[in-house]
Amino acid sequence: MPTKKLNASQPIGIFDSGIGGLTVANAIAKALPNEQLIYFGDTAHLPYGDKSPDSIKYYSIRIAQFLLEQNCKIIVIACNTASALAYETVKDFIGNKVMVIDVVNPIVDEVAQNKKLKHIGVIATKGTIKSDVYAKKLKHKNKNLQVASLATPLLASMIEEGFFNNKTSRTIIHDYLSRPKLKKIDSLILACTHYPLIKPEIEEFYKGKIKIYDNAEVVAKKVSEVLKGLKLLSPKKNNHHHFYMSDYTKSFEESSRFFFKSKIKLTAANIWK
Question: Which among 220, 110, 131, 201 has a CA at the least distance from the CA of 163?
């Protein structure tokens, strides 16, 4: 519970290594249309999946500090790798100033509630898979669950470069999902916030035979519940969202405008100086 005096009109802070977290930001904007969002995409360091844990912790702390400086009332780590490796570090750094929401715990809670599931697949970056965070947390909720985790390192970079819904993406997706490790799954967690952008292609591969989970809507629901509990839901509409990127990329600009049709304020911010 934050000890700092917060105001409902303050913005929601969200960060990711690049465009993936825009799927979460978009879901939050739809669930909470009165809220102002401040988004930081660390395009200078993407993808996080192949960075060291210490590097990811450093980037995450610095970005969290930046979002605090923007007067955010809550911070959402819209990146699975940062959530897996830096969530506790960011919480310790933030202290009781504001609440910090990650993208791992909400989806774990959602999946664990479905008692019909027995064999869950997880696809993510190398960093997330190496942390084994999903398997550990899911088995803590239900020790009888089987979890098959597969690193799919090409997917985030592919999506950042705009390769989705085409022949190239379908070939790479088919190769990963055909791996023996995922053969017997009855559900699949898309454990990277980039992956909802290729969810239709993944659904096409499985032809409705398995349950597919992504973070975006689940995290948006969690943010709504937390803000409501803290009485910090904005009573007035303020959707003048502000998007920052640590290094300009064309795909980030195109993606931010794709998700947020209205005119947006896009700023390059080198916070590493």
Answer: 201
User: In which band, very low, low, confident or very high, does the pLDDT at 3 lie, cut at 50, 70 and 90?
Assistant: low
- First CA to last CA across the chain, in angstroms? 32
In order of their start, the domains of the chain are 12-102+217-268 (3.40.50.1860), 105-215 (3.40.50.1860)
192 is catalytic: yes
pLDDT at 257: 79
pLDDT tens-digit readout, 96-130: 999 999 999 999 999 999 999 999 999 999 999 99
Q: pTM here?
A: 0.90
79 flagged as catalytic: yes
CA–CA separation, 20 vs 216, rounded Å?
Answer: 10
Q: Which of 192, 220, 223, 232 is flagged as catalytic?
A: 192
Overall average pLDDT of the 24-41 stretch: 95
Among the listed residues 47, 24, 262, the one whose alpha carbon sits nearest the alpha carbon of residue 161? 47
Q: Cβ contacts of residue 42 below 8 Å, gap of 6+? A: 15, 16, 17, 18, 48, 59, 63, 245, 246
Copy the structure tokens of residue 46: 């993407």
- How many Cα neighbours within 13 Å face the side chain of 225? 8
Token couple for 107: 């989806």
Q: How far is residue 194 from each of residues 125, 162, 214, measured CA to CA in Å?
A: 10, 11, 10
Measured at the alpha carbon of residue 27, what is the angle toward residues 93 and 116, in degrees to the nearest 5?
95
Catalytic residue among 77, 79, 117, 159: 79
